[in-house]
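Example 9 (inverse folding). The structure is encoded as follows.
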């Protein structure tokens, strides 16, 4: 009985390891499908890496802009601390007049084109 079991078991592995004959066209189509699936994933990965690089660049630019604005504010505060109250009020009056003039000019619209 052991001999019969060994004979049956020996036949099963041979059948399990049988090599199927694949046509070259079918193999090429399967290979193309596998490569195509990999390309989509690779393309998504490349796009995400490019997006991450762009975001890092934006973050760097934002940090630089924030640093520049803080430095500008610090410089202006230091200059303003050296001015008297009357001088500060004069600066405010000049700036207010400039803003009012710009608003009036914008409200008037573009100048009419005359004959040339």
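The amino acid assigned to each position is listed next.
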């Amino acid at each position: 009985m052991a001999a019969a079991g060994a004979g049956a078991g020996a036949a099963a592995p041979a059948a399990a390891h049988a090599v199927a004959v694949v046509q070259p066209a079918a193999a090429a189509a399967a290979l193309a499908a596998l490569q195509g699936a990999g390309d989509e994933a690779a393309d998504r990965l490349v796009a995400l890496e490019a997006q991450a690089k762009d975001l890092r660049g934006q973050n760097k630019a934002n940090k630089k802009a924030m640093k520049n604005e803080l430095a500008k504010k610090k410089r202006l505060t230091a200059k303003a601390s050296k001015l008297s109250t009357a001088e500060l009020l004069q600066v405010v009056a000049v700036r207010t007049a400039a803003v009012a003039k710009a608003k009036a000019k914008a409200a008037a619209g573009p100048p009419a084109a005359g004959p040339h």
